[in-house]
Amino acid sequence: MAEACFAVSRLDARGCAHSGATATAAAAYERALAAFQGWRAGAEAELAPALQEAPGFVMAHVLAGYLRVASRDPRQVRSAAPVLARAAALPMNRRERLHVAALRAVLGDDYEGAKAHLGKLLRKEPRDILALQMAHAFDHVTGDVARLHDRVAAVLPAWSRGLPGYGAVLAMHAFGLEESGEYEQAEQSARAALDLDPGNARAHHALAHVFEMTGRAEAGIRWLRGNAAAWAVGSTVARHCFWHLALFHLARGEIGAALALYDEHIAATADAGLADLIDASALLWRLHLRGVDAGARWQVLAEAWAPFSDDAFCSFNDLHAMLAFVGAGDRERAGHLEQVLAAGRKLRTRHGETTRLLGLKACRAVIAYGAGNDSLAIRLLARLPLRALRLGGSHAQRDVLPLTGLRAMERIRQQRRPHRLHEAMARFVREFGLLLPGFRRRHTLAPE
Fold it and tell me: What pLDDT does 410 receive?
């Protein structure tokens, strides 16, 4: 017989108390949590029995909410509202209240508030793996590179090899180290995570970033292809790792291989999410900068992006939607998105702030580049502030901005047009060289 869902609070293996859980529900929750933190598919299916067995299990509802808000799609985020309502109506402890407060903040579009609640929680409960994972995810979305590193480093002393989730903590630490330019330590942390679990897709992804940022394309290809069973099957990061593999081939000048990976694994399909569309735009644009004609692929991708033009949710999304529209030569959709951003920058919202700060300028620079107005593209890019990291995403992804500027400068030089933008472009690339560790190693710097 199932235990009553109002049973006494249970401690998990990490010492965190769970209200309303039964032994059976707690076991199902741990399976779902392990899938979520390891970037494995099926977390929702694993969680369903926990909610059925123990409707009063607070953290099962919280995890269900996080599974929805861990997205760049505002529709997916908003779908967590009824989940939050169910969780908030239950008796809970202090730690769980902070989780609920973080969920409420995200649904209120207050990601900084959510990070603050989770930070407070982690100072008291450093082994709350779900709090760490969500704070880490929100740091990534908001481009908070310092916290991406420091938050995980702060809780590491409370963890040890025998605790469930330690491999995920090491993989998160590896990614934070990599984004901070500490590549050797990042590789060590990722490999330590893989020693615990060779199938840790999160750790394989962190290593892909290390290889990318250190300019080791051949090693990256060998690693990803040699370990494809770990990240390409049953993981939530498969398309993104194929994107990394395509970048390695692109770095080696293997255009055919990059296009083949796009067609087979990255192109927009009916089941593609926003993160998948971002990868598709990012790869096709890099090919476009190299003079590769992607043909009808652009039109298919622009069609997939069209429903998201009015989202006013994430500047990182906006930039990649604009890449697709400009790449497709779709002036109507590019113009519509520009109008949405021009109006949205006046709003006192998170998206309004990032649009004012950099989103609109970056998108207008892409439009200018697509129209062949390289001088305007460079001027707009050069005016982006050092805080351009607030676009979110990783350094490898944000490379698209300085790469576009450099290509615009090359086109000016090739056409022997007079220009006065050399210094502006050089300054822009120097600044991004500081912001994006490894950029100097991987790409040509500003023209002489």
Answer: 85
Domain count within the chain = 3
165 and 210 housed in the same domain: yes
Tell whether 89 and 153 lie within a shared domain: no
Residue 233 maps to which CATH number? 1.25.40.10
Q: Is residue 286 part of a domain?
A: yes
Single-letter amino acid, residue 146: A
Give CB contacts under 8 A, 24+ apart, made by 279-284.
279/239, 279/240, 279/243, 280/304, 280/324, 281/305, 281/320, 281/321, 281/323, 281/324, 281/327, 282/243, 282/320, 282/323, 282/397, 282/400, 283/243, 283/246, 283/247, 283/250, 283/258, 284/323, 284/324, 284/327
The pLDDT score that the predictor gives to residue 435 is 52
Token representation of residue 39: 């970037």
Distance CA 152, CA 130 (A): 12
pLDDT at 446 over 50: no
Structure tokens at 95: 């730690």
171 and 304 belong to one structural domain: no
pLDDT in tens, 34-60: 999 999 999 999 999 999 999 999 999
